[in-house]
Write a structure and sequence with these properties.
alpha+beta; two-stranded antiparallel sheet; 4 strands; 39% helix; ATP-binding; Kinesin_motor_dom_sf; Microtubule motor protein
């Protein structure tokens, strides 16, 4: 557990944050912590698993934040990656067999194997109780609702197989 905490703290120290009109410590990047877990069953079977803990930077209404310069560039990049995630969720939710655009952003590409058939996903959405944030909260809840409707398929036991993106493994 201590090693995990060290790696999370190390990642947090590299996470970009900055001020804009609505938030003095706004996250300017997503944070992804990936844990590779390997266990051996009494039968000798080796179980492998990958756990992604993802903290997404919030979407930004450019007119509300008053972002300019670097903050504007960051906000556009954040919104683009969140839009790409929404596109992936929509494709996965589609009853038709459609192309899933995992390669449209680094975020969705890195999470591809966590959003594909042999996985389970849990989303926690933070909603603000402030009336001034009602529109953002509604957008977040609508996105969560779209994600809720997405069926990733049946998760299967991962015995003796390497994860799909094992080349990214440390």
């Amino acid at each position: 557990m201590e090693e995990i905490e060290v790696w999370i703290a190390r990642g947090a120290s590299h996470r970009a944050a900055g001020a804009h009109a609505l938030n003095k410590d706004s996250s300017r990047s997503h944070s992804i912590v990936t844990l590779y877990i390997k266990g051996t069953m009494p039968s000798g079977d080796i179980l492998r698993s990958k756990l992604n803990l993802v903290d997404l930077a919030g979407s930004e209404r450019l007119d509300k934040t008053g972002a300019t310069g670097d903050r504007l560039t960051e906000a556009k990049a954040i919104n683009k990656s969140l839009s790409a995630l929404g596109d992936v969720i929509a494709a996965l939710s589609s009853e038709k067999k459609v192309h899933v655009p995992f390669r449209n952003s680094k975020l969705t590409y890195l999470l591809q194997d966590s959003l594909a058939g042999d996985s389970k996903a849990l989303m926690i959405v933070t909603a603000s109780p402030e009336i001034a944030n009602a529109n953002e909260t509604i957008c977040s809840l609508k996105f969560a609702s779209r994600c809720h409707d997405c069926a990733l398929g049946v998760a299967r036991k991962n015995v003796g197989r390497k994860p799909l993106l094992s080349k990214f493994r440390p």
